[in-house]
Design goal:
The complex is a heterodimer. By secondary structure, chain A is mostly helical. Chain A is built from 17 helices and 2 strands. Among the domains of chain A are: 1-64, no CATH class; 276-291 and 303-337, no CATH class. In chain A, strand 1 (311-323) and strand 2 (326-337) form a beta hairpin. In chain A, helix 13 (279-297) packs across helix 14 (344-377). The chains are: A mainly alpha, B mainly alpha. The A-B interface holds A 2, 5-6, 9, 12-13, 16, 19-20, 22-23, 26, 30, 39, 63-69, 121-125, 128, 131-132, 135-136, 138-140, 142-144, 146-147, 150, 162, 195-196, 205, 385, 431, 434-435, 438-439 and B 2-11, 13-15, 17-18, 20-22, 24, 26-34, 36, 38-41.
Amino acid sequence: MLNLFLTAFVAAFLGAGMKRPFLFVLAYTYIDIVGPQKVTWGFLAHVPVSLIAFTCAFVGWMVADNKDGIRFSPRQLVLLALLIYCGVTTKLADFPVEAADKWAWVWKALVFATFLPLTLRTKLRIEALVLVMVLSVGVIVIGGGIKTLASGGGGYGELKLLVNDNTGLYEGSIISAVAICVIPLALWLARYGTIFKPSWMATLFAWGICFACILMPVGTQARTGLICVAVLGVMMLRSTKRRLTYISLVTIAGLVAVPLLPQSFTERMSTIGNHAADQSASTRLEVWKWTMDYAHAHPFGGGFNAFLQNEVSYETVKADYAGANNAVIQKERIVEKARAYHSSYFEMLGEQGYPGLGLWLLLHVMGVVQMEVLRRRYAKDPPEGFAWVTPLADALQQAQIVYLIGGAFVGIALQPFCYMLVGLQCGLSAYMGRVRRTVPMPFRTVRKTPAPAPSPARLETSA
Amino acid sequence: MIDIFTVVVPHALMALAVWRLLARDDLDQDPHLPAKAEGFRRKPVRSRDA
């Protein structure tokens, strides 16, 4: 039944694209996030639906879309440079076969992020993309949230999401970070949406999605998610008007939530500050040290999955207290091989070297600055019909900063969803650029000229 | 049951969104940007006087 439902949905989505080609772009976005071919074992699992949707999106844009005023932005050029550079490192990779496996999905994410801004020509397209991204993540987090409420998640790596293969967005740490990125976008849709206009139902659903997103770090027990929640909480303080009310509400919510959290969650979160006793955190630190040494020796990186050659050893220290002054210190030497980076920054450094890390940082820092410029430009007295710009730039900036900070503890440097956010930012910026070039008033500040002095003749008449 | 709920609700909303988008002219032509004929869909301009 589920097979039939998803197959019919994908077919209908692609069919709608025949009438309005931009819908192919939305179909690809949905397929890339949800992966209906992973959810079902039926027809969809045997058809390259992702490739079909992307081909349709590109051909539809080439044949039927208006391309007036389209410009390639500097960020798209950085994306292209990163794509070419990653292609070269894949050819020269330490593990060519394993590197090719990762390259197979990385190039699609980078190409789509470069292509996406070219299609985002109207405000409605931008909104539609945000909506499909939020609802697609909703397919994963709604169930995850309900299961967390029902069972508490069951421990790290135990939460069974819709697809139980621990890849892509279905991996616990990744979804716990990405889900938090979605919160500001869902709140923006509830306030400024035109497909689903602001109403109590839209607000209720948006709050429901946000609640499910916040539950993801609890259910997956991924510490990264808790850090992301804290970062978003602080950043939202900046954009909220009633700050005291916001702080009070967040404090009350925290006080109410803490006693309700599962004990396994609070125990795991308490290890954030004590990495010496925690094997997972100690492994990360050792892998990061190994990556820095590796980058010194190989400044251009080792290609995708270069971590497969690492071998780290360290000691964990545990103290068992039998009284106030009586503790038994236990040390254990751990040796591990081929451990993943668990950090986007070290992932880029180890796999793509200093140039790759530089391009990646440039791409994301440019995004934060670009959104800051937009949010400030339209913050005060926005022109009629553009009150949505600053809040959207704000939401996209918050999502990206959550991604950048969460990415310090999880390897999502080239996660396709994050590159959709990049494409969305480029699209918004390009759209506002076109509007500014088209409409001279009131987007451009008009130089105020002093009122002409009355002529002597007129002065004489009035005298 | 939970999995069916998590699949059906967002998909139903996406289907409704796509249905609404099909009827929206501003999906392809932004009201704040000048109207231009599109690619192969260029239609001849007919004069009302003719």
